[in-house]
Every structure is written in C-alpha cells, then in structure tokens.
Amino acid sequence: YAFCFQFEAADTLILLDYDDTLLPTSYLRSLQLLPQSTEPWDGPGELCNSVRSVLKSLDTEAARLLCLLKKSGNLILITNGVEGWIARTAPHFLPETWEEIQTVQHYSARHKHSGESDCPFYWKQKAYFDEMRTHSYGRQAYMNVVSIGDSPVEREALVRSSGHFANAIPKSVKLAEQPEPGVLQQELGTLAAHLSTLVGFVGPLDLQLGGMATT
C-alpha cells in the first residue's frame, strides 16, 4: 500500500464485538450472574458492592470509548449472542454504555445467519462481509475497516471478508480473551487514547492488546 493521506470518518467502518469486548461476559458467568451460552436468563440477581464498583468503572470507560468510536467512523456492534442479548444485558450491567449503544446500529449475527449455517464463525464473517459490501457500495476510495474484538473469530472474519474488496484496508485489534473487568477497562482506555492514530494510520494493522496486568 502506498498512501499520501490519512483516513477520515467517512472512509471508516468500525466493526465492534460485544461479549468480553464491552461486557465482561466470562467474568459475569464465573459469578453465575449470566447463563452459559443460550441458557434461559431471567435477569441478574443482586450485585455485591465489589462487583458493582468494578462494573461502574468499566461502564464509564466503555461508554467513553463508544462515544469516540461513533465520531471516528460508521460504528456497528455485532454479537454472536442470541437475538436481544445486548438489550437484555447492557442496561443491567453497563447502563451508561447502553445509553451510547442505543444510538448505534447493533444486531445478532447468530439471529441473522443461523438459518444458513450452525457455525459461529460463519455468522460473524457473513455479517462482516455484508457490512463491508454496504459500506463500499459506489465507493471508489479506500475503505478503512477496523475490527475490535476479543476472539480470533473477529480477526479471521476481517481477513477473509476484506479479501473480497480490492479497496479494503483491514485493521484488526484483538483484546484479551475472558478478561477480568480491570484488564478490559485498561484495554478500552488504551484504545481510546490511541484511537485517532489507529483510525488515521495509512495502512493495514494487526494488533493485540491482550494480557495487560491490572494496576
């Protein structure tokens, strides 16, 4: 790639995961505050003060990042969770973040594509491909595609889907898998601090933020 410009918001598509990327799902499941996978869920029980405190700090950081992401490009939140998962969980655990999510396109790739395949990777890749196709329609300029998620699934979906578009410049940001809230908060803070550089960078990126220790 040879560029002589910086990408701007109009050029940029940001594809964001939800579980263990905004919501510390694995942590909440370990405390039995969320069900495993697709088990029925009637809502959380009472949160103890320590859990409420760490979630409040994470909530503030996640909401701040979402606000910045919305200004940086066309932000789309895609989960492999069941239909309505985001709307059922975010208000309980991340209410400030939920306020930001409500102004963002968000949906379940599982719900949209499980009729075509029972493979979770397929759901996410098909969602990525569809969003890139929509964003690139009638576009002659380069398409700046940023993927943010904790799983290798998001990275691989980005790589495979962007390969179908000659004008796509893929940027993958992989976070830690099954993070504690403090680790996730640090990662989101790091992303927020360097977001303008990440979005504006004039080439593809393959980054990993996982593994930072809490302070």
From TrEMBL:
Question: This protein is called what?
Answer: Uncharacterized protein
What organism does the UniProt record list as the source? Oxyrrhis marina (Dinoflagellate)
Taxonomy of the source species: Eukaryota, Sar, Alveolata, Dinophyceae, Oxyrrhinales
